[in-house]
Specification:
The chain contains 10 helices and 11 strands. α1 (12-22) links the parallel β1 (2-6) and β2. Helices cover 39% and strands 23% of the residues. It has helices at 12-22, 37-40, 43-52, 61-67, 81-89, 105-118, 132-138, 164-175, 236-251, 258-276, and strands spanning 2-6, 26-30, 70-73, 95-98, 122-125, 145-151, 179-186, 190-197, 202-208, 215-220, 225-230. α1 (12-22) crosses α9 (236-251), α5 packs parallel to α6 and α8 packs across α10. It is globular, with a radius of gyration of 18 Å.
Length: 279
């Protein structure tokens, strides 16, 4: 399969392309750009690494759309996702959008609506959704609540879209849709977020702004609580994500309900607005 990687401002462009090439797929790349300093300064280096790996670069999305069978948008700058998706949409080929699907709910909804209108298979998520520990926890029945302990670095003030999305995605993977209320408390070291579901259960996120590199979470059922840790340096979830993306490209059907994807973006927006009131 010929797969196009869009956006070389992310280390995921390398992580994903190497795994796909190892599975026998042919990779093409489009550099893209970024308005985010952290990622824009990485474009040259990551593009160079891709070239060293034998990945050819294509000068336009239109040409890439003609060459490839499917696409992965890896641009860190989520403000570009809708425009990149729109330019690829005419080809009506499967598109995976690396997290977050868009920079806000309005653009996320526009992507889903365009995909539905034109019959374009679309999938978007954090790789943490496919962590082995999440899959193991999902085998538990009747999870009532989830508590996440997570790194929470930010690209800007109250930027939950960069890393906060991992925690929300993990809760969503374990609990599904139905979040109706969000509350945020914070200090200089951490942010504490509560997510209240329609069934009255409450899940939490404790995000540390610095000095944390691993993810831990606790699941609660009526009978017991279970502790899990996704240790620092363990990126096996990339392998599982690539397997899921590959199946998505073949079957042209996402394993993730788009309503769940939209819920995640809506919750991230609510977190930002709620936290902003306290500043």
């Amino acid at each position: 399969m010929k797969i196009g990687i869009i956006g070389t401002d992310s280390s995921h462009a390398i992580a994903f392309s190497e795994r796909l090439m190892n599975k026998g797929h042919q990779i093409f790349a489009y550099r893209g750009g970024s308005s985010i300093e952290l990622s824009s300064t990485r474009i040259e280096k990551i593009s160079g690494q891709l070239s060293e790996n034998g990945v050819p670069f294509i000068g336009s999305l239109q040409e890439l759309a003609q060459i490839c069978d499917a696409f992965i948008i890896t641009s860190v700058d989520a403000s570009q996702h809708f425009e990149q998706f729109a330019q690829l949409s005419a080809a009506k080929k499967p598109i995976f959008i690396d997290k977050p699907v868009a920079q806000n709910y309005e653009q996320a909804l526009a992507i889903i609506e365009l995909a539905n209108k034109q019959g374009i298979p679309v999938m978007s998520c954090s790789a943490l959704r496919f962590a082995e520990e999440i899959e193991l926890a999902k085998s538990e029945r009747n999870i009532e609540a989830v508590d996440i302990i997570t790194p929470l670095p930010m690209l800007g003030d109250l930027d939950y879209f960069y890393y906060g999305i991992h925690a929300v995605e993990m809760i969503s993977a374990l609990k599904g849709t139905g979040i109706e209320d969000v509350a945020v408390m914070s200090n200089e070291q951490q942010h504490f977020i509560t997510l209240t579901f329609k069934d009255g259960t409450v899940s939490t996120i404790r995000g540390y702004l610095q000095h944390r590199n691993s993810f831990q979470f606790v699941t609660h059922t009526h009978q017991q609580s279970e502790w899990y840790e996704i240790s620092e340096g363990n990126v096996q979830f990339y392998d599982y994500l690539i397997d899921a993306i590959e199946q998505f490209f073949i079957l042209r059907e996402s394993p993730i309900n788009p309503e769940e994807t939209l819920q995640i973006i809506r919750v991230l927006e609510q977190m930002t607005k709620t936290a902003g009131k306290g500043y």
